[in-house]
């Protein structure tokens, strides 16, 4: 029996590692697909609305079946306000900034920027006293230094690619603006992640339901925004036909949602640090696909900036792992699931 149990654990580990690698490849493929949509003239707001609606429609029945017993008996105004903010920030604002950033940079850079989020989440959570912060602790110092290295890498990636004469994106004059959009998107994502974790730990322990509700709300908000701005609901270009719209729904809604659901399951099995380690794989896949399909390349200086970001990311993750192994949980984290804000699944 022990051997059978050990065999199951080995199989589970193989499934988790293989699945997380596949997840990053799928997400990288979607980023490259979105870059192609932007080049065809797709309206970012329309893309967000279609993807959000598809995610909610496909996964809501699953959320009802799996999490109905976890729903609160009474919905407070505080919970409604939290869901609205998560929908606006995590769906509309975050994705709009990401799509604008992808349009002006490359899929590889867009995939690299979210690696800033663990450090930014630490800073934001520490400000709200939801994360351990002891300036005399070497692990806190390591997290602060790792966050700084990530930021330096992001700045270097932006400036060094901009100064590369062989860079088509840089020649267009919008590279730094695009990187600014991406950094803004990561800041919004980090704020939303902290709010999402607080909501999950504050009486709404149903992550899939939350993602479905906020995605549906975000799709509605985004569609309404396009009507206000453009005067109509429109994909933005006659080149975006029904096949491409179906691709947005499948890749952006169903497959990306399945990736999020799988990552959430992995969080419960292995914890957030293990899952975060696979983040850079998406950047590598995006760079390979961009070079093979779109003929886009990165300068050596920009690659050096990405390496700095990865170094800072792993330094933050190393510090968090050792900190949680050696220090008692923060009092305000006792009620939270596993005491780590990064347990919360990221929004689609």
From TrEMBL:
Signal peptide (residue range): none
Keyword field: Membrane, Transmembrane, Transmembrane helix
Domain EamA as annotated: residue spans: 21-158, 177-317
UniProt keyword annotation of Signal present: no
InterPro entries according to UniProt: EamA_dom, EmrE-like, WAT1-related
Residues that span the membrane, as ranges: 9-33, 45-66, 78-102, 108-130, 142-160, 172-195, 207-228, 240-261, 273-294, 300-319
One Gene Ontology cellular component annotation held by this UniProt entry: membrane
MF term (GO), any: transmembrane transporter activity
Subcellular location(s) per record: Membrane
Membrane topology according to the record: Multi-pass membrane protein
SUPFAM superfamilies referenced in this protein's UniProt entry, alphabetically: Multidrug resistance efflux transporter EmrE
Entry similarity comment: Belongs to the drug/metabolite transporter (DMT) superfamily. Plant drug/metabolite exporter (P-DME) (TC 2.A.7.4) family.
Name of this chain's protein: WAT1-related protein
Organism phylogeny: Eukaryota, Viridiplantae, Streptophyta, Embryophyta, Tracheophyta
């Amino acid at each position: 029996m022990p051997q059978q149990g050990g065999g199951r654990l080995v199989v589970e580990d193989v499934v988790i590692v293989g699945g997380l690698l596949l997840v990053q490849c799928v997400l990288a493929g979607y980023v490259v697909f979105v870059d192609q949509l932007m080049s065809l003239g797709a309206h970012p707001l329309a893309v967000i609305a279609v993807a959000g609606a598809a995610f909610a429609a496909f996964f809501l029945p699953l959320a009802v079946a799996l999490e109905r017993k976890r729903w609160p008996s009474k919905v407070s105004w505080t919970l409604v306000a939290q869901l609205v903010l998560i929908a606006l920030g995590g769906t509309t604002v975050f994705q709009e900034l990401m799509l604008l950033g992808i349009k002006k940079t490359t899929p590889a850079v867009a995939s690299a920027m979210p690696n800033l989020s663990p450090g930014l989440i630490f800073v934001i959570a520490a400000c709200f006293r939801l994360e351990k912060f002891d300036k005399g602790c070497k692990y806190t110092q390591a997290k602060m230094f790792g966050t700084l290295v990530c930021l330096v890498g992001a700045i270097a990636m932006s400036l060094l690619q901009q100064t590369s004469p062989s860079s088509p994106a840089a020649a267009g004059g919008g590279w730094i603006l695009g990187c600014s959009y991406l950094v803004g998107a990561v800041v919004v994502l980090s704020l939303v992640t902290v709010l999402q974790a607080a909501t999950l730990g504050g009486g709404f322990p149903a992550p899939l339901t939350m993602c479905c509700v906020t995605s549906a709300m975000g799709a509605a908000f985004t569609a309404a925004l396009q009507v206000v701005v453009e005067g109509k609901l429109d994909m933005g270009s006659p080149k975006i036909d029904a096949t491409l719209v179906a691709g947005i729904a499948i890749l952006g809604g169903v497959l990306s949602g399945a990736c999020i659901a799988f990552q959430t399951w992995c969080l419960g099995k292995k914890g957030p640090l293990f899952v975060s380690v696979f983040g850079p794989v998406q950047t590598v896949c995006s760079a390979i696909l961009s070079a093979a399909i779109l003929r886009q390349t990165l300068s050596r200086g920009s690659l050096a900036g990405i390496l700095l970001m990865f170094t800072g990311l792993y330094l933050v993750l190393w510090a968090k792992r050792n900190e949680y192994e050696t220090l008692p949980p923060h009092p305000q984290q006792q009620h939270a699931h596993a005491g780590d804000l990064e347990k919360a699944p990221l929004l689609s």
